[in-house]
């Protein structure tokens, strides 16, 4: 199954203030394995970056001024994510900005049914704990030392590792309804189910020949 890890950076915290996307990063997976296909674009938001957002990602108005607009990169972006599950950490945030941009250029919005939110998965597995991307990297021993500031492509690669760990995370389960001891040494049921036992009886003739062998061996050792 093809999936896309996706992250965005923006000019501010909400589309209510008409904030826009300044960066999109995507990493493609096939059955949770990277295909090495990526989509990455810095975007001219056609408005100023807020001071708070600049502190988070460090993209200045000057840096973004000569970049393509969302309209100019939209076709390639939509082709990259087409018919794939989209994996996002805190999906409502990124999805609101992506659909805002798509509405502005009169394109079909991304359906939330096609999106998997890793923040929701993490909250269900680890309720009552910090589940930010940094916190999950720490939990799963993922090196995030390159994440000095937010960067969509770096965050995608970190989220890829987090996502795989979230899927593989297994919690121990106790079968309280069973009183069987799961030790084959003491559990005859386990023997019957898993080990085929065959009892071989020794004949009288085999016993006689064995005794004769032992006697000859003793005589040989004695005289030598």
How would you briefly describe this protein structure?
It is built from nine helices and five strands; from the N terminus they run βββαααβαβααααα.
Please, could you describe this protein's structure?
By secondary structure, the protein is of the alpha/beta class. The chain folds into 2 domains: 2-168, Nucleotidyltransferase, domain 5 (2-Layer Sandwich); 188-223, no CATH class. The protein has helices at residues 51-57, 61-64, 70-81, 91-104, 118-125, 133-139, 152-168, 188-194, 204-223, and strands at residues 2-10, 21-30, 33-42, 85-88, 115-117. It is elongated. Residues 170-199 and 217-224 have low confidence and may be disordered.
| Spatial ordering of strands, largest sheet | 3-2-1-4-5
Q: Give the percentage of residues in beta strands.
A: 15-25%
Structural category is alpha/beta
Biggest sheet: strands, sense, closure? 5 strands, mixed
Q: Which consecutive residue ranges, at least 5 long each, have pLDDT under 50?
A: 170-199, 217-224
Number of strands: 5
User: What is the number of domains?
Assistant: 2
Q: Based on the structure given, which CATH architecture of the largest domain is correct?
A: 2-Layer Sandwich
Order of helices and strands: EEEHHHEHEHHHHH
Report Rg.
32 Å
Fourth CATH level, the homologous superfamily of the largest domain: Ribonuclease H-like superfamily/Ribonuclease H
Please outline the helices and strands.
Elements: E1 2-10, E2 21-30, E3 33-42, H1 51-57, H2 61-64, H3 70-81, E4 85-88, H4 91-104, E5 115-117, H5 118-125, H6 133-139, H7 152-168, H8 188-194, H9 204-223
Parallel strand pairs: 1-4, 4-5
Antiparallel strand pairs: 1-2, 2-3
């Amino acid at each position: 199954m093809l999936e896309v890890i996706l992250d965005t950076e923006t000019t501010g915290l909400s589309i209510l203030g008409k904030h826009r996307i300044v960066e999109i990063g995507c990493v493609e997976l096939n059955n949770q394995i990277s295909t090495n296909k990526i989509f990455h674009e810095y975007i001219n938001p056609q408005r100023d970056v807020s001071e708070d957002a600049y502190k988070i990602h460090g993209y200045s108005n000057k840096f973004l001024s000569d970049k393509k607009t969302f309209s100019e990169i939209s076709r390639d972006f939509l082709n990259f994510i087409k018919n794939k599950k989209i994996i996002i950490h805190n999906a409502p945030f990124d999805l609101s900005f992506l659909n805002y941009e798509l509405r502005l250029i009169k394109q079909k919005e991304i359906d939330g049914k096609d999106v998997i939110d890793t923040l929701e998965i993490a909250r269900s597995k680890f309720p009552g704990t910090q589940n930010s991307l940094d916190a999950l990297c720490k939990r799963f021993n993922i090196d995030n030392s390159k994440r000095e500031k937010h960067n969509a492509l770096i965050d995608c690669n970190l989220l890829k590792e987090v996502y795989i760990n979230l899927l593989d995370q297994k919690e121990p389960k106790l079968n309280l309804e069973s009183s069987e001891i799961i030790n084959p040494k003491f559990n005859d049921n386990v023997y019957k189910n898993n080990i085929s036992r065959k009892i071989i009886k020794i004949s009288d003739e085999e016993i006689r020949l064995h005794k004769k062998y032992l006697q000859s061996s003793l005589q040989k050792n004695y005289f030598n």
